[in-house]
Amino acid sequence: ETPETFWRPDAATLRKLKPGDYVKVCIHPPGDMGERLWTIVHEVEKRRGGRVRAEINNTPVVFENMKLGDWIEFEQCHIFDHAPADAASVEKLKQSLAA
User: Fold this and answer.
1) Which has the closest alpha carbon to 18: 73, 80, 83, 71?
2) Which of 19, 60, 82, 83 could form a disulfide with 9, with the two C-beta atoms 3.0–4.6 Å apart?
3) Exposed (0-12), middle (13-18) or buried (19+): which is 24, by Cβ within 10 Å?
4) Whole-angstrom distance, CA of residue 44 vs CA of residue 18
5) Residue 8 CB neighbours (<10 A)
6) Contact 61/67 with Cβ under 8 angstroms?
7) What is the tens place of the pLDDT at every residue in 49-83?
8) CA distance 2 to 72
């Protein structure tokens, strides 16, 4: 509904995805309200569009059965933002989460 609020990383960015990076994923089960969550990447399948295993890095609001620190797995097509694992990006992400 509001595509201007999403930034989807390009293929080159997704190919560079590595453990320690932060990614925002959108989880939207059929018939249910979706939610965007920041996660910390732990594992990335190397094949194109491969799956990602990550740890939830903020408190979910919609999904009461999920919590900060839980591990989730998703396809790269569900990634809507990316912050590489460098000090400047992590600090910017922390500031946006605090706002």
Assistant:
1) 83
2) 82
3) buried
4) 7
5) 14
6) no
7) 789 999 999 888 888 888 999 999 999 988 988 88
8) 25
Q: Report CA Rg, the chain.
A: 13
79-99: per-residue pLDDT in tens?
988 888 876 766 776 677 666
pTM, 2 dp: 0.77
The number of beta carbons lying within 10 Å of the beta carbon of residue 57 is 17
Contacts of 73 (CB under 8 A, 6+ apart): 51, 52, 53, 54
Contact 22, 42 (CB under 8 A): no
- pLDDT at residue number 68: 92
